[in-house]
Amino acid sequence: PKAIRLQDYRPPAHLIDTVDLQFELGEEVTTVRSTLGIRRNPDRPDAAGLPLTLDGQRLDLVSVALDGTPVAPDRYTVTADHLTVDQVPECFSLETVVRIKPQENTALEGLYKSSGNFCTQCEAEGFRKITYFIDRPDVMARYATTITAEKARYPVLLSNGNLVASGEHEDGRHWARWEDPFPKPCYLFALVAGNLRHAEDHFRTFSGREVTLRIYVEPGNEDKVDHAMRSLKKSMRWDEEVYGLEYDLDIFNIVAVGDFNMGAMENKSLNVFNTKYILAKPETATDNDFLGIESVVAHEYFHNWTGNRVTCRDWFQLSLKEGLTVFRDQEFSSDMNSRAVKRIADVQGLRTVQFQEDAGAMAHPVRPDSYVEINNFYTPTVYNKGAEVIRMIHTLLGPEGFRKGMDLYFQRHDGQAVTCDDFVAAMADASGVDLSQFQLWYRQAGTPDLSVATAYDEAARTYRLTIRQTVPPTPGQPDKQPMHIPVVVGLLGPDGADLPLRLTGEAAPAGTSRLLHVRKAEEVFEFVDVPARPVPSILRGFSAPVKVKADVSDADLTFLMANDSDAFNRWEAGQILGGRILLGLVADQQAGRLLDLPQSYVDAVGAVLRDADADPAFAAQALVLPTEAYLGTQMDVVDPEAIHTVREFARKTLAARLRPDWLATYRRHAGNQSFSVEADAIGRRALKNLCLAYLMALEDEEALSLCLGQYHGATAMTDVIASLQFLSNSNAPQRDEVLAGFYERWKGEPLVVDKWFGVQAMSYRPDALERVTELLKHPAFEIRNPNKVYALIGGFANGNPVRFHDATGSGYRFLADQVLRLDPMNPQVAARMMGPFSRLRRYDAARQALMKAQLERIVATPGLSPDVFEVASKSLE
Ligand code: DPP
Ligand code: ZN
């Protein structure tokens, strides 16, 4: 397989203005008749006389006609990937008829079946598996789609746009015709046909348009769509209020399917979702599920403007729509729930997953320069670091400047397929802010390192911050230039209050949080009129996706934990302090020294715990020790065993020394409150379950009885699954019985069974791999269902570092076996499972050798997909 490069981009030789599709859906074979209105692209004068090349894969071509006349076989060629037609006029219609077999499509890309229903996934390049087309996002056309299928099996027939006609045939088939008035790239095409039930609601837009909202699910799931519907209406309102963006059709449909590679897909007016991000009721879904649904429903809805009305010119620009839309859904969720807690959760995700990616073989810029398989680039870098890049622009421009930039972006580019440069240009032009150096964020991969040195001059009453930046080398980018990094800082006085800030050269103090622009390798910022040595609060709100090392003492961090007015940094101070202490203990453990947790740290945690009721949601975040994955990112050579041992030691020590406080806090919040998914209720449950987690670290009788009591007494899945997880990690005699009982209780709910797989996959008991291997043969495990794979195989490989990285290499062998088993069925999912292998260089020589051996075995396998080949070969480089 060959790499595709951004620098080779050329506009298409031909454009397609109209598409008329006729689907004849069948059990054995599905026929797709397509009529395309095609013309030569005026932007490619050199293309005159070039043949027409259409993309198409796994299509059985029946016929080709041009302007109504069959094309002679010597005038066209068919290869595994293309249909080429010679001697085409300037402007013409091309009709192709192909046959496909959706029932055999296990890759879940193109048209496929899920639970007996037909559905599609076309992003990024799935449309070419449905019909011949110029499958690239800068080819935008108007679609009309006629679907014909057996009425009894497929009573519901859906596509993009408006239903314009429908009818029945005498033989039991029926048909529906949909027309989408908005030109769109083919990756936004969707079709659904099946036996589905729907919930319906309505939304009136600010200009008075009445929109019908429908969520389609399999029969039996109608009772689990309320939260998704509420989330949809809230997103529609929020986009009007915050961005002035209104929905543009009279109908908005969502369909939830059980087999889906990703979370969801923003097809124009017909979103297709993984059931995981639609179905929820308190008995079956956790608080995180509820929050995830709210944000993914919003994300896909927001794509209607950021993605659909303005789309990507090519797939290198993926972050144009994804980074921006993630930023928008993050802001939406912040407005709906707790802003601080949302920010903390997002940063935690970024720091564990994206920072790991940035430090591995698959590291790439937010706008990649090249790819072998685009499906491998739907990554935390493109999505989450991409969102941080947008957030930095928001910080640099301020909310009003940012809104002006968005307005200009839509004014200039509505209906177009554009680039990240176009977006940045709109932002810069609308605000007058110079973003030229800032654009390096799109081009340079790797997580920048900031080091901050502080100096207080008592006599001069000045406080100086010296900030140095370096951007580490990444594959293909050995040398980096300094970036434009927005660093928001505050200074705390001895009483814990923010000091008014005045920089050298300024006439008067302005504000207590200041945006510092770090542009050079080293910058010095001097604050004047500082009455006493302050405590610095650096990178407030995590104003840039960087790693910071600052000369802030443990005592200062403890002070920040108690006093910082910036909630994020109050949490961050605890993480830095905890990380420092745990990494020190890791060194002790490696050197065979006795482990000892400083009492000052226990006291600092105790203070947060005793103050927890002031903001339970925040406390629940602040009381979690840095994760094993995050600690790994802070080490030159990751030592998964030492990290796990030390973190468990610290958990047990905190549990033992603060036991009365954990217990009292648990009891205070364990009372029977009525269920709600308001932020406050979620926060209380999170805090309560965190207390239980600490108590269960001790595994004493009282903890066990509380945990079992919660397991048997709780009705909300959040509480049930938390107690199940603690029991699954324990040696409690009831463990196996409880796990078996959970399955019996929930075997009819696939999404709950996924949780059951996940809990066992992530158990840090030494027998985890043995158990996971057994579970692969469990009747509820289906290798073809991505959610099952993510829960069991992904849960083990990504969520269980200590067992996955077992020194014998058993985890690596297991993962390679599963990747090779998955690849022929679903390459996209197979490649996604390989993340841990792409970071092999972060481990010791012995583990590296074991991982390499597995990768070599993978690469040597004949018939490998480009997806898996790309990750495996890059990981070996
Ligand atoms: N475009 C989808 C999303 O991120 C992924 N296929 O919403
Ligand atoms: Zn998206």
Automatic annotation (TrEMBL):
By sequence similarity, the record places it as follows: Belongs to the peptidase M1 family.
The name under which this protein is listed is: Aminopeptidase N
Note the InterPro entries from the entry: Aminopeptidase_N-like_N, Aminopeptidase_N-like_N_sf, PepN_Ig-like_sf, Peptidase_M1, Peptidase_M1_dom, Peptidase_M1_pepN, Peptidase_M1_pepN_C, Peptidase_M1_pepN_C_sf
Acetylation as a keyword of this entry, yes or no, is no
Q: Which segments constitute the Peptidase M1 alanyl aminopeptidase Ig-like fold domain?
A: 446-550
The protein's Enzyme Commission number: 3.4.11.2
Could you tell me which Pfam families the record lists for this protein?
A: DUF3458 (PF11940), DUF3458_C (PF17432), Peptidase_M1 (PF01433), Peptidase_M1_N (PF17900)
- Domain Peptidase M1 membrane alanine aminopeptidase spans what residues? 228-438
Q: Name one GO biological process term.
A: proteolysis
Tell me which cofactor or cofactors this protein depends on.
Zn(2+)
For whether the record's keyword set contains Nucleotide-binding, the answer is no
Keyword entries, A-Z: Aminopeptidase, Hydrolase, Metal-binding, Metalloprotease, Plasmid, Protease, Zinc
The chain positions of domain Peptidase M1 alanyl aminopeptidase C-terminal read 554-877
Q: Which organism is it from?
A: Azospirillum thermophilum
What does this gene product do?
Aminopeptidase N is involved in the degradation of intracellular peptides generated by protein breakdown during normal growth as well as in response to nutrient starvation.
Residue stretches making up the Aminopeptidase N-like N-terminal domain: 105-188
* Molecular function terms from GO: alanyl aminopeptidase activity; metallopeptidase activity; zinc ion binding
Question: Catalysed reaction per UniProt?
Answer: Release of an N-terminal amino acid, Xaa-|-Yaa- from a peptide, amide or arylamide. Xaa is preferably Ala, but may be most amino acids including Pro (slow action). When a terminal hydrophobic residue is followed by a prolyl residue, the two may be released as an intact Xaa-Pro dipeptide
Q: What Gene3D superfamilies does the database record attribute to this sequence?
A: 2.60.40.1840, 3.30.2010.30, Neutral Protease Domain 2, Peptidase M1, alanyl aminopeptidase, C-terminal domain, tricorn interacting facor f3 domain
Superkingdom per UniProt: Bacteria
